[in-house]
Amino acid sequence: MPIATTAPLGARLLGSGLAEFRVWAPLARSVGVRVGEHAHALVEEEDGCWAAEVPASAGDDYRFVLDGRDEWPDPCSRWQPQGVRGPSRLLDTATFGSGSFELAPGPGLELDELVIYELHVGTFSREGTFGGVVPRLAELRELGVTALELMPVATFPGRRGWGYDGLYPSAPHPAYGGPAELARLVDAAHRAGLGVLLDVVYNHIGPGNEALRGFGPYFTSRFGESPWGEALDYGERGVRERAIQDAELWVRDYRFDGLRLDAVHAIEDDSPEHVLAELARRIHSAAPRALVISEMGLDDLRPLRDWGHDAMWLDSLHHALHVALTGERDGYYASFDGSLAAIARELSRPDGSRFVVCAQNHDQVGNRATGDRLPTAKLRLAQAVVLFSPFTPLLFQGEEYGETAPFQFFTDHIDPSIAAATRDGRRREFAHFTGFSVFDVPDPQALETFERSKLAPRPADGLVARLLQLRRELPRRLEVRFDEHTRTLELRRGNATLCADFANETVELT
Question: What gap in Å lies between CA 472 and CA 144, rounded to an integer?
Fold first, then answer.
């Protein structure tokens, strides 16, 4: 692989009415940039990049022109106000810290004190915007949450979706409010004493990525396909830099306090330095206190052991609890037996603060056929075990008060063929699951599927508040006892004891 460079990709304002444009386009014979009505030629650099300084100002719209005919948005666009098919817009992130507001520094996140609250911007409030999150920041901090985790906000097709099919990873979704409103949310959270983490996706690119394919060989068949299609080729310098510079952007310009890397088990790289190790190294260089947290497959500890990541999601405690409470054995629950011994083994893992665990998250709710949440009694029991454990806990939006609305899988694909394939694929995914008909699976493209997933906030459950308070007071050491016959689990930390009765689905905290 060519030696990576930190030369910035995309559009960068230089002042005095000039901007630098740089794009990785090794497949092109010529590259230009059209700024408004004016076209400018770019000069070929090494490693397949093209660049030039041309007259341009913040707010100007532009497209790259390949071989004198095809015009496409910038693969590293920071602002797509008209969506994935519109032009890119020059963004001055320096204005985030001047004028009407100044970016407040983050509170500084320590793993031992971290309590994560995962939310989806579009369904968290009736407005479905970055601004709609702000009114609830104070109550979350008072509850004991220390950091928000925003599900992906990259620009994706249409107005509604989970965000994991983003096409422009550095451009905050226009339906949520765009770049300035995202910066305001981060600032407001910091002023409320909350850190902010961002979920980012570097394991695949969403469908409808023809624009990207015109620039360069982003994909490879060397490793087979990822679960979402062709694998990204991180042996290519431009592919690698696009992801790493995106990560640097969030912690540097928006002042996010860390990143959650989606499904890193699906990222293959045979370079001398794995792309995820280089990403963590450069993130920690750009923002030494920023956290890098990975979602990884079960018992694969490479993020912590080899790549220098600070923490990782570990779903095995969730799976053990879920099977013990529900008896479900479909899909990824098949290898779990529902025993309390399995739960006790998970709770006995060392170095707990480096593992992020949950009773629910967007996957474990939304990837169910109908997006249904755990019933109240089962949720309180699983929640209590998670919050009393020495691991880093994650609450999924609404969990703190027992939200009953589902979190369903919803999309708004603007390509009819992709929309139809998504609808059909969702039904096929659950065709062999027991307990429901494929016709029960909600239509992901229907507006009502999205609307059903909106929260109806209420005051938090007192047990959640009490457990979060105890987390700040108790020693880390956990003692675990269980009785398989009576289906009871006893956890002790310091002078506090949690008794979880799986047979009667009750919790006692003394």
Answer: 9
